[in-house]
């Protein structure tokens, strides 16, 4: 029963075009959701939903914050489930691996982390490492947004140049 609910929840959080979890979900007028990084700019209005084929006049999409927050919760739940799985148990000490060994990018249990073998290495709690990665992803998303904005500006400039050339000839 619990796995059926979990499976249904995972399906709801899956982009039906990329068949993977949403990264930056937007919802169009028919109610279906897709990843924002789909290139809608080149598509003529009205846009047709890839799922139901309903036309939509919308081209300026806004992030579905509820779906994005649900994705965050699902990722955290997945991390916690992964941490409690058998593969996350230390073979030597039978403890859950909760420490991230930065240099080799592997997980260690607390006893292995404290051992002489790893004492000179850089370690941090898994949660801290995950937060660092989330921050990197946020910066990357911000940069992606700036790149997209710059591309739009370049396209506008190119269009303006073409118009001036046509006007002058």
Automatic annotation (TrEMBL):
Query: What is this protein's record name?
Result: Tripartite motif-containing protein 43
